[in-house]
Amino acid sequence: MKYIKQMVIILLILSLGNFISSLTKNIIIIPGSIIAMILLFTLLCFKIVKLDDVEDTANFFLKILALFFIPSGIKIITMFDIIAPNILEILFIGIIVTILTMAATMKFVDVLALGGKKDE
């Protein structure tokens, strides 16, 4: 019964995120799942939803996360003949975006952890 309750909470938040996304699609396109993650984070921060209310089901989804990448991986393999002419550009963009994301994350953690102050 505990797992059903946790799943219902997660699905309700996801449904709310999808609903908000459908309302704002003419203004800005943000996937409902992203809005749902922000909603869940906010609800957890304000302790409206307690971590115990979603933790076990969320951990289950994290354990099987790799399964969600199988369909996109198969699609990339089946469409490789279309992707092949641009593979170097795609890899280059992927590497650059990864480096920029790492740098932005490091700076963000630095600002949060140290308040932006460096030891002199």
What does this structure look like?
The structure is a single chain. This protein is mostly helical and 120 residues long. It contains 6 helices and no strands. The longest helix has 28 residues. The radius of gyration is 19 Å and the shape is extended. It starts with a helix and ends in a 6-residue tail after the last helix. The model has no long low-confidence stretch (mean pLDDT 92).
Can you tag this structure with a few keywords?
mainly alpha; 72% helix; 120 residues
List SSEs in N-to-C order: HHHHHH
Low-confidence segments, given as residue ranges, are none
Structural class: mainly alpha
Apparent shape:
extended
C-alpha end-to-end distance: 55 Å
Largest sheet: none
Average pLDDT number: 92
% residues in beta strands: under 5%
- Percent range for helical residues? over 70%
Number of helices: 6
Radius of gyration: 19 Å
Count of distinct strands: 0
Write a compact overview of the structure shown.
This protein has 120 residues and is mainly alpha-helical. The chain is 72% helix and 0% strand.
